[in-house]
Amino acid sequence: MDMNQYLEVFIEESREHLQNVNDQLMRFEKNTDDLGYVNEIFRSAHTLKGMSATMGFDDLAQLTHKMENVLDAVRNHQLDVHTEVLDALFESVDALEIMVQSISEGGDGQLDVKLLVQKLQRIVAEEPVAQHAASSIEYDELVQTLLSQTADQGFNAFEITVQLERTCLLKAARAYMVFDVLEQAGDVIKSAPTVQDIEQEKFESSFIVILVTNESQEKLQASIMEVSEVESVKIAAIPVKKETEMEELVSAEVAAAIQEVTVSAPSKLPVEEKRQPSNNKTIRVNIDRLDSLMNLFEELVIDRGRLEQISKELNNSELDETVERMSRISGDLQTIILNMRMVPVETVFNRFPRMVRQLSKDLGKQIELQIVGADTELDRTVIDEIGDPLVHLLRNAVDHGIEMPQARLENGKNEKGTIRLKAYHSGNHVFIDLEDDGAGINREKVLQKALDRGIIDGKTAETLTDKQVYELIFASGFSTAEQISDVSGRGVGLDVVKNTIESLGGSVTIDSNEGYGSRFSIQLPLTLSIISALLVQMSEERYALPLSSIIETAIVQPKEVMHVHGQKVIDFRGAIIPLLDLKELFTVPNSVQGDHYSVVIVKKGEKTAGLIVDSFIGQQEIVLKSLGHYLPGVFAISGATILGDGQVALIIDCNALIK
To answer: What pTM was computed for the model?
Structure first.
């Protein structure tokens, strides 16, 4: 077997099983009377053990085997559940995740788990489970009848006794490999012990199998002995009468029952986990293939724009109809491709309950994490980037937000704090809110830290609103931690969070009520590669403004423009907002001022501004292309796109302009 062929599937399925173990452990910790969670954990651990043994990752298989012993003792009421048991299981999952990560990075998945194995062994005295002897196998009437029928067809029937080495740790895995060899050679009719008992390792070191095959005894012997940790194999031919020699034929009822007696090889999944085939058919697709598909479609979008441009210039009705149909079909294709790349935020959120649990224990706090809207979907490129900012915000909420239990009781609160993580769609955006019922943000403390670090001066501090003060915690190097800890207080601050989110075309805002809690709200685009934009003209150059940043467009007369401290401003719906002349900012040549201003009103968070352009061209879907390594850090330009006529238009970063 070429193991490399299955490595990617092994890694993905291992991660899924480990995530399930994590989730079920979290639920079981809250309700230790419900052994249904333990059965779910056991099934995933059992499957992971079988896969690991088959792939040759012995450390993984050994650790999951010891976890199984603990879980089996719990579900059979032989072990009381307490903190030490749960901590050991969580610690085991951590080790398993490290090993799987090592394998995914090209490593061998090895890890020194001796101490952890010893801890699991101490928790439960590993008394032998009632073993099933494999000294004999019963030939009942149905088996005899089936053997007679196969003899009529010229097949051989063998009784095969397999003895594993006494030192074999993964008996079920080795038995599976033996059954796999036998299934390739013929049909397994019966086994002793039963398949279920063999899967659960309820046998000592040997088992017996009845096999019907057309293979020779010598070839079977050699094939089974190739399996590792098989000590010996005894094969004996079974003498049976042909069905034509039997005095009575088997009744129809018995014949029907015979069909049910055939035993298949032990699967990698426990028997109780087998399900009926689902009507939902899915396949795993390498993400690189989806990226390639997306890149090709982006080129198609560019060519579509070019065809639409040519169609307008030629004014040919048949061409117009064809281009319109192609545009409609490619639009549907675009929707399908974008949906294929959408991933539930659950893939990111799933790791947070465990993280909050551990942080709570480290800090001596009691915290409940509530997750809402985990099925909300985002493009995988956004999903890949949003994980770290959310981790940072969660750690901040646990450390700075939620108070110690005694302090909460003194303030009339429940000693257990609550953090609520919510995701939801709104328009072409996804919002992620992180809210806690902790201490909130202390305005004076934030101001003093900002003054001490020279982020603002005293005169500015007197004019700031509460929201502007809260924004200061996003300044580089800002931290209100009194002491350095493993959780926060290392001078990193939340500027990394803000920069990452804005680099994704999103924004983050803060709302807080001192003494009652805080809320961080993140706004993200659904996708980053194809966006809707407003094309604008400036002299002979064209630029694109993302529609997600635009409130509206307006025509402003020169008399409506005012000047405040040398800055052009206008009255926009009762609010004074600044005007930025893009031709001046980007030094556009041959710029001539007309008799009015064409203004695009854009917004970032709570800030609004007007951008002056020469004229509006219209709305268009564009493909966002990076400027690459040759033009890094160009002010207020987030990328470029190729228009229908083949010309390049720069994409303006409205967030950078307003900042």
So the answer is: 0.58
